# Entry
Amino acid sequence: MTPFLVHAVRAKEIAGVLARYGFADLLDQLDVPPAIWRRLVPEARVRQSTWERVRLALEELGPAFVKFGQLMSMRPDVLPHPLILELRKLQDAVKPVPFEEIRPVLLEELPVDLAEAFGEFNEVPVACGSLAQVYFARLRGSDRPVAVKVQRPNIARIVQTDLSFAAWLAAQLHQRRPALHPYDLPAVVEEVRLGVQQELDFRNEARNQRYFNAVNPYPARVFAPAVVEELSSERVLVMEWVDGSPVGREPLPPETGRILAADGARSFMHQVLIEGFFHADPHAGNVIVTVDGRLCFLDWGLAGLLTRRLRYALADFWTAAIDQDAERVVNIAAGLASPSSRPDLRLMEKEVTLALREDLNFALGRPQFGRAMLKLLFIFGSHGIPLSRDYAMMAKAVLEIEELGRTLDPAFELRAQAVPVLRELGQERSGPRAVWRHSRDFLRASFAGMEELPGQLQRLVRRFESDNVTFNMQHRGLDRLQEGLQTASNRIALGVIIGSLIIGSSLIVNTHIPPYLLGYPMLGIVGYVLSAVLGLYVIWDIIRHDRHR
# Structure
């Protein structure tokens, strides 16, 4: 049973919004019952572009679809570049939920009563998102100011319902539009669903913030809010209050902006290339300039993870892209692809060359790493090389870091901050520590193999002693030899028979034994005819086999 029948009221709302924004043909193709939407829909709004209408429809559909669109913007390997740019404009412009509805969530999640946990709690939210609202409070006893992030009531159920519609739509599109098969939309929606579930568990966000602060090499310049662990849970996150304003809201002196832009970019590059753990959505609204001149990264619900192999490949990607080496870029991508993929590398190289010239050409002006990475990932995905989801998250985050840097410093260039981090990564890959690590791993594997060798030899000797050894030998090409021997033996046998018939017939002819045929004994004539027929058959068989060789 489809979600359109299970959730009829919500189905009418979704179908109506899609039709109003000019997607009625899509509903027709998906066999959505016309009664659900035709009478409810005024004239379609088609003045905007297709991608703009997608964004506006998602915004009107509500918080769950907004979050869905935001997460889909992290898949540049699946969605075209213009749509990615539109989805990035999605904002959590939602009305706040009254505190009377928020209070039960707090009472259920906090280990103590609200009054016992906080000496002061402002019931007016300071920020409202699609999944949660944030309040200002002070801890009881220490009077320490904190931010209390509370999940909106019943949001998990609402999100689950709306994502079931999204999954159904993706399955229908995958089934009815063969051109979309390479993108595997049902798998993408499932991935987004898992991402939303991860964000709905605030314990993941708390762990990400704690880990970042633990490995952050620049705590005096960049940080994440400290978590009050004893008061945090799955639906409530209590963390230190950060005084400041989002990037771009308050004007800054040029020198301060330049320093902050460099600090933020250097921290992000270190997160990606050295730690392999990075903030997945560092847009201006999630980065605060504090009153003491530092940068604070907020909203760690989603974080990217890159293995050592992916980090090294990413460094090679960037180096090749800066050098405009499209062939090397394609070869690196092909090396990360699954063995079953068979992309057209020459066509990919042409498309990569064009993308690098458009967005990463230093001779034509300021390069844009983020846009170039988004285009490259889409090229790879369209050719059947979907790279790691964390690569897609990284590309979007790079684009946001570039925009954030240029908001703080109009002359900002990411390459200047990437070079020292790439140099540090080079030391990790080929420095003395790397040589020692490789040597240690080699010796460890060698000694492990040597330790196992005596036991393996002993087991083999015991099998020989017990006559429990079986050798399976297979000779290739013997089937053809066997067929040739059989054919030759058959021909020899026929030759012997033909010769015998000729000799016997000749003896009978000389005996003059009746009956006669054409003046000769009939039995001898029949023998001659039979030997002639068999001889012609042997000649025809030889000619036939020689033609097939």
Notes: Residues 157 and 292 are 41 Å apart (CA to CA). Residues 245-430 form one domain.
